[in-house]
């Protein structure tokens, strides 16, 4: 479990580039500097470890898990090569990238996460989709 105030394993990095975030993702990101929870989470989640992220509301947890997990998928698909949408290339198969399943408790959060993931993936060939069971079950 990672708590606020713990020293970042990645050191006092100041930018996402210093964390090693792939260009396909950083190019789509409106920020250059990671927030504290994003610095703390990075080495664990990008390295494939399990982690529970704990910090106050609005502290940046969404990108803290989304960026390293998408980064890891692109690493599996492209290794050191940048892979992009240029030329209309096909999306890499899930057998190369792995699949990422995000489960959130409400359809509103689902919509917000979908929009954020789509924005982040505008320069990469990964595909994103969402499903909500609100209408089918009358519950989230
Ligand atoms: N590196 C960053 N630099 C500046 N702003 C950021 C950064 N990362 C995220 N934000 C912004 O911070 C705000 C809060 O982010 P986010 O919703 O991910 O927080 P959260 O911890 O998941 O909140 P909650 O606990 O309410 O779900 C958003 O407006 C987001 O765009």
Automatic annotation (TrEMBL):
Residues 42-140 form the Helicase ATP-binding domain. It catalyses: ATP + H2O = ADP + phosphate + H(+). RNA helicase. The keyword Hydrolase applies. The keyword Aminoacyl-tRNA synthetase does not apply. GO terms for molecular function: ATP binding; hydrolase activity; RNA binding; RNA helicase activity. It comes from the Eukaryota. PANTHER family: RNA HELICASE. This is ATP-dependent RNA helicase. Gene3D superfamilies: P-loop containing nucleotide triphosphate hydrolases. Belongs to the DEAD box helicase family. Its EC number is 3.6.4.13. The Q motif is unique to and characteristic of the DEAD box family of RNA helicases and controls ATP binding and hydrolysis. It is an enzyme of class 3 (hydrolase). Keywords: ATP-binding, Helicase, Hydrolase, Nucleotide-binding, RNA-binding.
